[in-house]
Specification:
The complex is a heterodimer of chains A (43) and B (221). With 43 residues, chain A is mainly alpha-helical. Chain A is 56% helix and 0% strand. Chain A is built from 1 helix and no strands. The mean pLDDT of chain A is 81. Chain B is an all-alpha fold and 221 residues long. In chain B, 76% of the residues lie in helices and 0% in strands. The longest helix of chain B is centred in the first third of the chain and has 31 residues, at 25-55. The two termini of chain B are 15 Å apart. In chain B, 43% of the residues are buried. Residues 212-221 of chain B have low confidence and may be disordered. Classes of the chains: A mainly alpha (43), B mainly alpha (221). Chain A binds chain B through residues 6, 9-10, 12-13, 16-17, 19-20, 23-43, and chain B through 4-6, 10, 17, 20-21, 23, 26-27, 29-31, 33-38, 40-41, 44-45, 65, 68-69, 72-83, 85-87, 89-90, 93, 131-135, 137-142, 145, 149, 153, 201.
Chain lengths: 43, 221
């Protein structure tokens, strides 16, 4: 059970990182607010 | 994490994931950024779609959301300083545009033609001269990326122009609603690229400051 939970946490980290990379690659989001892009994702 | 202005709930979410997976501090910031994106988008989308459904203007709302999504991702535009004000502006502007689209769709065909043509001309001018418009929170550093985004924005514009043209003689019952939605949305995203668009957002930000400093940190937390 603990192993499955760990996998889910890592999956969440992977999915969220992927999403952050996609979001940082676009000019801005759908909404009128732009969260600050982390330095490591700026390009 | 102190230097970045993410919502409290996003920072807690990221910090929890870091504790569970042992990722670096730098990665924690990326996770907080992703959490901000997920929460703001989901809440905005849910509220906009719910209001559209309740007012019976869902087709126009969906057409506007799709257009807004594609244009904002490629062309960028003005921003609000706070997720709360952002939510209010996005929900209000999308709902008003949807209501406007329903109203404009009842115009004569020639009236809607002229309106669409004006919207296409103005948005093309704005895209060619101004896009992509970035902001200090998400600067476009690379000139290559800037060029790429401009190209994508123009492709999206061509797509919008083609849909407008195809729907002109369509027998689909929602064709004129979608056409009017596209025209209104094009005008809005073009306005958000301009100086007056930025001034409007700045004015809203300055007018509706709830508590000076740290408002963003209070968000959803």
């Amino acid at each position: 059970m603990k192993g499955l939970a760990n996998r889910l946490f890592f999956l969440a980290v992977t999915v969220m990182t992927f999403l952050a990379v996609i979001a940082s690659a676009s000019a801005c989001g759908l909404h009128q607010y732009q969260p600050e892009v982390p330095e490591s994702l700026r390009k | 994490m102190e230097s970045m202005s993410y919502m409290t709930v996003s920072r807690r979410w990221a910090s929890y994931l870091r504790a569970k997976t042992g990722v670096s501090r730098e990665k924690e910031m990326v996770l907080a950024y992703a959490a901000d994106i997920i929460i703001i988008n989901l809440l905005n989308l849910a509220a906009i779609l719910l209001i559209g459904f309740l007012l019976g203007i869902l087709p126009a709302t969906i057409a506007i959301l799709a257009t807004l999504f594609l244009f904002r991702h490629t062309a960028g535009g003005a921003h609000s300083d706070s997720p709360w004000r952002c939510a209010c502006i996005t929900i209000l502007s999308t709902t008003l545009m949807s209501l406007g689209a329903i109203l404009f769709s009842k115009y004569s065909k020639i009236g809607l033609d002229i309106f669409s043509l004006i919207a296409l001309l103005l948005s093309f001018t704005a895209l060619v001269t101004l896009a992509p418009v970035d902001n200090p929170a998400a600067p476009i550093v690379s000139p290559v990326r800037r060029k790429k985004l401009k190209r994508y924005a123009l492709v999206v514009f061509l797509l919008a122009a083609a849909i407008t043209l195809i729907l002109r003689d369509s027998v689909w019952e929602l064709a004129q609603v979608v056409r009017a939605s596209l025209a209104l949305c094009l005008l809005w995203v073009s306005f958000m690229l301009t100086g007056p668009g930025h001034q409007l957002m700045h004015l809203i930000d300055r007018t509706f400051i709830l508590r000076q400093g740290g408002e963003k940190d209070e968000g959803f937390g």
